[in-house]
Amino acid sequence: MMGFSALELARIQFAFTMAFHIVFPALTIGMASYLAVLEGCWLVTRRAVYMTLYHYWLRIFAVTFGMGVVSGIVMAYQFGTNWSQFSEFAGGITGPLLAYEVLTAFFLEAGFLGVMLFGRNRVGPGLHFFATCMVALGTLISATWILASNSWMQTPQGHAIVDGRAVPVDWLAVILNPSFPYRLAHMGTAAYLSTALFVGAAAAWHLLHGRDDKAVRKMLSMAMWMVLLVAPLQAVIGDLHGLNTARHQPAKLAAMEGHWENRPGEGMPLLLFGMPDMAAERTRYAVGIPHLGSVILTHSWTGQVPGLKQFAPEERPNAPIVFWSFRIMVGLGLAMIALGLCSLWLRRGGRLYGQRLFLRAALAMGPAGLLAILAGWVTTEVGRQPWVVYGLLRTADAVSPHSAGALALTLALFVVSYLFVFGIGIAYVLRLVRKGPQAADLQQAPEGGPGAGRTPARPLSAAQEGADEGLPLPPERGGH
Amino acid sequence: MGVDITVIWAAIIFFGVFMYVVMDGFDLGIGMLYPFVPARADRDVMMNTVAPVWDGNETWLVLGGAGLLAAFPVAYSIVLSGLYLPLIFMLLGLLFRGVAFEFRFKARERERHIWDKAFIGGSVVAAFFQGVALGAFLSGIPVSGRSFSGTAMSWFSPFALAAGCGTMIAYTLLGATWLIMKTEGSLQQRMIGVTRPLTFLMLAAIVAVSAWTPLRYPQVAERWFSFPNMAFLAPVPALVLLAVFLLLRSLARSPHRLPFLMALALVLLAYTGMAISIWPHIVPPYITIWEAAGPPSSQGFALVGTLVILPFILMYTGWSYFVFRGKVRSGEGYH
After folding, report:
1. Does residue B328 lie within any of the structural domains?
2. Confidence grade of residue A469 (pLDDT, cut at 50, 70, 90)
3. Most B CBs within 10 Å, among A9, A69, A464, to test the B interface
4. pTM of the entire structure?
5. CATH no. for residue B217?
């Protein structure tokens, strides 16, 4: 197929299926916690607005979660189907971590999801809230295990190589490997931030289209507080994560910075733009701020980190991709911080809900968190190359012994199926977002205890088209 | 060391895959029964019988894969790359089937038929290729050293295709008997109607595989038809006949749970028979569970978690089924 090798096709397939997958868990991690907060607020205050929002986001969560599940199963099997030599080499480490993810997270999510979605009339409000919390906890536990596994691949430790395989010697060291705390904090924060931006964009869309009520305002307000607090925090975490990368994966960092060589006694600039050229071994058209690279990375005026030329050509990651994906991520992060600060400014005098320029910006920033997550994963995964397990196993030695033809066939099937299924799925999500919170949802306030022998049809799927668009909300009242 | 951790792991994976076959089996069976039930209200009811639990059911498949990777990394890499195409087809089938649960109810009226077809097609493809993968696995996967050494089409054989059809029959039977338990009225009557021929088909499939395997694989014949094994294993076919008899008899007497329990028994017996045939190999006929075992430090670490957590999983999964117990009726609840 177009002259791609089996290895290239396997890598493209992994990148493609992973890029689609990661978007859904990122949103479900954030949304599950958001739903737990909404339901908790409702239980405490009994203000209807929280229940209205809960049911609105529950529907969107359900569709997103479903897409995460089906794309996730592909990931769990892909390590064996496409990367069997990697599984053979590292299965003793990644296998138990994946098994713990299934045992502690996937079953928890799946077990309580049914009650969360359909159990409103079958269990009491306390138990329903418990189910929501368990689903939210499951998403966070899941992220923890899978990031432990990925972090070990980036900064492996706690193992021995026996008979050509990685054997765990010290599990604590394997799990708490050097990059794990930073990666976990960075990704967890990213999920919350992405969800806040998504929720904020939904609220902004409704305000721009003339729907200004308590539920929409509450949504925008909650989302913008989150962005204001978490976006700067994420910048700090990201900076610490970068310093950790400088220590443990110097070639990746050099590629991120487009940094080729050091001259004695001269500080590193921070390049804003440029075009790293692998063949010429330099970054063309570089525009940078002198010494700032040294200041950020070494906290000194003329400190230096290794340049790409200090690594043999076959040890270097693809600098143009890593350089630019990193800048996209950082640029989006700065825009998020700016959005948060604007929201704070506009709260004075209550202009937050009426300032159209700001609302348009909030709407435009809806997908920014997800794009930043994709750019971040491209940075860290492409930056790890040519290794799949850093310093231990090369990507070229990890791939299954399939023909390029078989891989081209499966790649084509994945591309066609994913574009169809997730294209329509995303359209359904956006349609649910457009419908807006429904006051009618309040009729589904819980009645205590399981209804004997009564099975609700799917409350979620009561999302019928059209007729009830934009109903005014009833005045605030107690739960039911 | 008195307890062989590798054998415990083999048992856990055996149990995990069985849980998957049973639980996602009736989900996939419902998808394959859709073509026989055209009415939308009935289809809604069918889907609602599993909507709250399908995700948990499917998770057993992920546990099977993760457990295999944790305890037998060599087997995981050989089996998954050796069954490459059938497994990818299965995953794509599960993709379409899985999103249909959510999308079908979100779709506009004129789009709904797309997700009905995705639900049917996804269920058929996933069930068929699970069976094909099982058949190819039993037939043996070409191995050299610690790697798969066949081609992209090594899995393709008449036996594998027959196993694919057998699996579709088994899942459809599970789905039909599940619906007998969970529905009432005309839909239940229709399910009782299809269960009888399905039971005979299931019996025929079990007989066909039972006859075919020993004829093709002398080591299997050796296992079943030599003394003293024969005496120990004789109850297996006897129990199959008993289960078929009870199932057919129960259909005539306003059935509720019994058909589903008997269908479960049939699947368990067939599944156990296969395990007896290949024991102690994990990549038949070359690699035993001990040859494929991962490092003891991996097996031990994962085992602690499994033994501690699995009882809790079974507990809250049971609770979830308990919450959604009883018959599912159409048009009740939310609008």
Report:
1. no
2. very low
3. A69
4. 0.88
5. 1.20.1630
